Amino acid sequence: MSRPYKLIHPDGVEQVHKLTGRVEDTLCKLIEAGAEGLTTIEYPAPRTSDYVFKLRKRGFVIETLTEPHDGPFPGHHGRYILRSKVERPSADLTPRASADHAASMVAP
C-alpha cells in the first residue's frame, strides 16, 4: 500500500508522491528526526543512502553532513537532514505523517 506525501517547494509548487516500503520508512524517519537528522548508526537500514538517493530524485531536499566516528572501525558516516517541507495530505495526522523542516532550504 502506498501513502501520499505532499512535497512543498520553496516557490509554493506542490507535488504529491506515493511512497512505499523502505523509501517511505526513510522519509518518515527523517521527518521524525527533525533538524537533528539521522545516521545509519541510529537508523540501521540495509541501504539508507539508496533510499535517500531515491527521495532526492523525486525532489526532496536532503542535506548530508559528514561526521567522524570512533570505535573498532573508526572512520566517517553521513548524517541526513530533511530540508524540504513535507505534509501528509489526509485526515489521518499521525505523528509521522506531517512535518515542516524547511527552516532553510538547501539545494541538493
Attribute tags:
108 residues; alpha+beta; four-stranded antiparallel β-sheet; three-stranded antiparallel β-sheet; 7 strands; disordered C terminus
Mean pLDDT: 83
Q: How many beta strands in the DSSP annotation?
A: 7
Helix content, binned percent: 10-25%
Strand order of the largest sheet: 2-1-6-7
Taking the sheet with the most strands, its summary is: 4 strands, antiparallel
Beta content comes to 25-35%
Query: Which shape, going by the Cα principal axes?
Result: elongated
How many distinct helices? Answer: 2
Count structural domains.
1
Our Rg estimate from Cα atoms comes to 14 Å
Give your account of this protein's structure:
This protein has 2 helices and 7 strands; from the N terminus they run E-E-H-E-H-E-E-E-E. With 108 residues, it is an alpha+beta fold. The longest helix has 13 residues, at 21-33. Helix 1 (21-33) crosses helix 2 (48-57). It is elongated and about 45 Å long. Mean pLDDT is 83; it is low at 93-108. It has one domain (3-100).
